[in-house]
From TrEMBL, chain A:
<protein>
    <submittedName>
        <fullName>Proton-conducting membrane transporter</fullName>
    </submittedName>
</protein>
<keyword id="KW-0479">Metal-binding</keyword>
<feature type="binding site">
    <location>
        <position position="69"/>
    </location>
    <ligand>
        <name>Fe cation</name>
    </ligand>
</feature>
<feature type="domain" description="NADH-quinone oxidoreductase subunit D">
    <location>
        <begin position="289"/>
        <end position="358"/>
    </location>
</feature>
<dbReference type="InterPro" id="IPR052197">
    <property type="entry name" value="ComplexI_49kDa-like"/>
</dbReference>
<keyword id="KW-0460">Magnesium</keyword>
<feature type="binding site">
    <location>
        <position position="322"/>
    </location>
    <ligand>
        <name>Mg(2+)</name>
    </ligand>
</feature>
<dbReference type="GO" id="GO:0051287">
    <property type="term" value="F:NAD binding"/>
</dbReference>
<feature type="binding site">
    <location>
        <position position="66"/>
    </location>
    <ligand>
        <name>Ni(2+)</name>
    </ligand>
</feature>
From TrEMBL, chain B:
<keyword id="KW-0408">Iron</keyword>
<dbReference type="InterPro" id="IPR052375">
    <property type="entry name" value="Complex_I_20kDa-like"/>
</dbReference>
<dbReference type="InterPro" id="IPR006137">
    <property type="entry name" value="NADH_UbQ_OxRdtase-like_20kDa"/>
</dbReference>
<dbReference type="GO" id="GO:0046872">
    <property type="term" value="F:metal ion binding"/>
</dbReference>
<feature type="domain" description="NADH:ubiquinone oxidoreductase-like 20kDa subunit">
    <location>
        <begin position="22"/>
        <end position="132"/>
    </location>
</feature>
<keyword id="KW-0004">4Fe-4S</keyword>
<keyword id="KW-0479">Metal-binding</keyword>
<dbReference type="GO" id="GO:0051539">
    <property type="term" value="F:4 iron, 4 sulfur cluster binding"/>
</dbReference>
<protein>
    <submittedName>
        <fullName>NADH-quinone oxidoreductase subunit B</fullName>
    </submittedName>
</protein>
């Protein structure tokens, strides 16, 4: 007998910390239709950027759009301003910025992997991954002074320098983490009970990924080769050994594999930066006020982040537009849920790694 | 012997609600529950159901759409309850203060017992706040269980009407 049921998930739901509301139209246990509602955390950051704060304070405002990829937001905004003011930065600043953005990616991916395990019902793995994530937070605290929401980047440079002790400690932490990640890759590939929840669940095919414009790890797990790091040349990714990670099955398992292998790649890049850090100043003088318009794309942990800034030679900007990765991915999210069992919904949702405070701003 | 009082004292449970924060404080709360800091060794457990909760952890400035849910959750938690505002946004609005969709801190809507500063609050601060909250919870619990006096003890004055005089006159009549 067929029976249609409507089931809401979030906001304030046990399985979901993020303030988003999904409404599933289920037929028996299969999900047939999905609708979503994301406006719960809208704060009005874009409006505040053009009415309350001057342009040199905004790096610290837009960092508060999202706690997980704060550094990517402030870096993208800073690059737009630097492009308008025509500032040429030295190698050391670029390398330090790349270092922090990659460390941020490592801890964000590990948090996502832990969340997927928790929502699939594997509490011990969640605790284990969270424990192994702590050294990275310690390293971020050593470099920048705060665990998350570090206001490391300012217009014209970075706010703190690295000492040789931090360099040594960082290399130790990264080497230890590399061993752990290799073990996790083995575990995620071979654990039988995890494979029940992950393999063949929540499949996004390559055609769907292309037609719904998926980005970030979601697209790379389906075999779609999009990565801003490979396309633009603002940061020195070609010098420090960046490699694109691709998987082709498109299920939860493939997304986990993409994240794990990206962590390995990020560790290699961070090690290269620690070993070959160039000499130079960490802050360069910047003069003038932004005039004209500028657009910057960066690869956040969840995909492409886009900033459009327009100024007219005044301290107050004319327009700040933020396009965040999760917002672009929502059509693809909705497609994945269809024809899946409702019991898998929390694990699938966690495997997207949604960031709703970015989306609602 | 089953003692309800003992259970309430030892293990107050936590409810965590994101009222519009940037996820910074939320992942620090998550880090608190993980093995390095391990909040659960104080007997608190993070639960999703307001009916089972005793301590209410709120992060973020209250947005227009989340305030209704904030009050609903607060009213669904049974007495006695303790509210912790985590992060400077939940205390005063923080950097989002007086933006057009933001309500500047949760104490406009619900009474707050412990304020935790910081952007984002570090796990050490959150743990301090929870330990304080456990103390406040115990105090509130004792107050709730002591007998309440609904009337004021009348002051005895000669020649004026009071309860003890009435009792005395009634006693005289019986005799």
């Amino acid at each position: 007998m067929k029976k249609n049921i409507q089931i809401p998930l979030g906001s304030q739901h046990i399985a979901l910390v993020e303030p988003v509301k999904f409404r599933f139209e289920c037929e028996n246990e299969r999900i047939k239709e999905v609708s979503s509602d994301v406006g719960f955390v809208h704060r009005g950051v874009e409006q505040a950027c053009v009415s309350k704060f001057k342009f040199d304070a905004i790096p610290y405002v837009v960092a508060r759009v999202c706690g997980l990829c704060a550094i990517t937001h402030s870096l993208a905004y800073t690059q737009t301003i630097e492009e308008m003011l025509e500032v040429e930065l030295n190698d050391k600043i670029q390398y330090l910025r790349t270092l922090m953005i990659e460390l941020d990616r490592i801890h964000s991916h590990m948090l996502c992997l832990a969340h997927v395990c928790e929502n699939a019902g594997f509490e011990a793995m969640f605790m284990d991954i969270m424990a192994k994530r702590e050294p990275i937070m310690t390293l971020q605290e050593l470099i920048s002074g705060n665990r998350i929401q570090f206001d490391y980047i300012s217009i014209g440079g970075v706010n703190r320098d690295i000492t040789p002790e931090i360099q040594k400690r960082g290399l130790e932490i990264l080497a230890a983490l590399k061993e752990e990640i290799l073990l996790y890759i083995h575990e995620f590939q071979n654990n039988w009970s995890l494979s029940l929840k992950y393999k063949g669940v929540g499949v996004l095919t390559l055609d769907e990924a292309m037609s719904y414009n998926a980005i970030g790890p979601l697209a790379r797990a389906s075999g779609l080769a999009t990565d801003v790091r490979a396309e633009t040349s603002r940061l020195p990714y070609d010098k420090i050994g960046y490699e694109m990670v691709l998987e082709h099955t498109g299920d939860v398992f493939a997304r986990n594999q993409v994240r794990l292998k990206e962590i390995l790649n990020s560790i290699a890049m961070c090690e290269n930066i620690f070993e070959g850090l160039p000499q130079g100043e960490i802050q360069q003088k910047v003069k003038g006020k932004p005039n004209g318009e500028s657009l910057v794309r960066l690869e956040a942990p969840r995909g492409e982040l886009m900033y459009y800034v327009k100024g007219n030679a005044k301290p107050m900007l004319e327009r700040v537009r933020i396009k965040t990765p999760t917002f672009s991915c929502i059509p693809a999210f909705m497609e994945v849920f269809k024809e899946e069992v409702y019991a898998d919904a929390p694990a699938i949702l966690a495997s997207f790694d949604p960031c709703l405070s970015c989306t609602a701003k | 012997m089953f003692s309800f009082k003992w259970f309430k004292k030892k293990s107050p449970w936590i409810l965590h609600y994101n009222a519009g924060s940037c996820n910074g404080c939320d992942i620090e709360i998550l880090a608190c529950l993980s093995p390095k800091y391990d909040l659960e060794r104080f007997g608190v457990i993070n639960c999703g159901n307001p009916k089972q909760a005793d301590i209410f952890l709120v992060t973020g400035p209250v947005t227009y759409r989340s305030r209704e849910r904030l009050i609903q959750l607060y009213t669904q938690i049974p007495e006695p309850k303790v509210v912790i505002a985590v992060g400077s946004c939940a205390c005063t609005g923080g950097i989002f203060r007086s933006m057009y969709n933001v309500e500047d801190g949760i104490d406009r809507y619900i009474p707050v017992d412990v304020y935790t500063p910081g952007c984002a609050s570090s796990p050490e601060l959150i743990m301090d706040a929870v330990i304080q909250a456990v103390d406040i919870f115990e105090h509130k619990n004792q107050q709730l269980q002591s007998a309440k006096k609904l009337y004021r003890q009348p002051v005895f004055e000669q020649g004026r009407f009071c309860v003890s005089n009435v009792a005395k006159s009634l006693k005289d009549k019986d005799e």
